[in-house]
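Journal club prep, shared notes

We agreed each person brings one worked example of a sequence with its structure written out as tokens. Mine is Cyclic nucleotide-binding domain-containing protein. I'm keeping it raw so we can talk through how to read the token line rather than staring at a rendered picture. Sequence first:
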Amino acid sequence: MQGRLNDVNMLISAHLPRDPLSGRPTPEAIDMAQRVARYGRLISILFIANVAERFRPLCTEAGLRRLAQRGALTPAEVDLLLRFDPGSWPYVLTTWNIASVRQAASGDGVLAGAPVGLHQTLLERLADLRGTCASVEDDLAARMPVAYPQFVQVVVDSLLFTTAPAMVDKLGGAWAVLGAVEMTLFYSGMLELSKVFLDPFDSEEYGDKSLAVIRTDTFLSENHFLASRWLRAVEEPLPWEVRQAAPCTPRARLLQLARGHPLLAPLLTRGAPPPAGVLDGLEELLLERGETVIRQGEFASSMYLVVRGECLMSVNGQRVGTLGSGQLFGERALLEAAPRIATVEAARGRELSPCRRPSGPGPGTATP
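Then the structure, token by token:
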């Protein structure tokens, strides 16, 4: 389980899209990675709760509510899980993780630009995780009943009790006692070890607990730490992308932003000064939620590039789309003096870079 959860979190963290300005993963990418990691932690918690008696209280409605109070679940997720029996909860969470990966890999999801092989690998690891959980449950269900070693213990105790008297005639009293002690230690140790193998999670509280081979609390602690370790490794700009350069002026920041966009990047060669006039019309705007950026029917003179945040686009009062970080809108204004065909307003606080159409040369030489 740990290996597959580690693979999923590591691969997702390594392929998160990054903000071209800050070098950090985008907020949407971090949300997706944190959700997958959180579901992974819950899979391990609820799976152990189903097979280990000491964590069994978590397999109740009260247990789920308590997890929600600690921030591990949302109220909506609790309500959905309660529609299934507790034994199905780890598999429901695995399905949610698979759906998260599929959603992130489709359309404009945060993993849409990742290699196709990544999506297939993630789905295979999650499917393997389901198989691993099922195999553990199958092994526990098919194990020998603990009642059998109890019967064996009675037989062995009877054998050991009669060993010393049986060996007195041939070995003498002292050797008979030593032989009986040796056999007692050997058989009792083997018996206790067999009980541990038959009850690895100590669910039946039988046998010597000091010999337990699976420490479920340690297992859960490791899973909780590993789930967040991979994301922490990429939260900051990657080391080879950190440049020792002069302080980033507003113009240099805009140049960095423009070089990160596929429409503007061909005009701006990294390491060379930008062509004359390319950034002359570029500036920055900081808008509040609900503020209108452009309005349908008004005269168009600027194109906008979303730096951070989100915009809502509507036509004739009907919402037709959402624009996120790195997306352009209003580019028609750089080519012709025509009215706006849509209204765009701020969905939440954001930063925009408008590029205005020059008034002199005309549409053919408009500055992008």
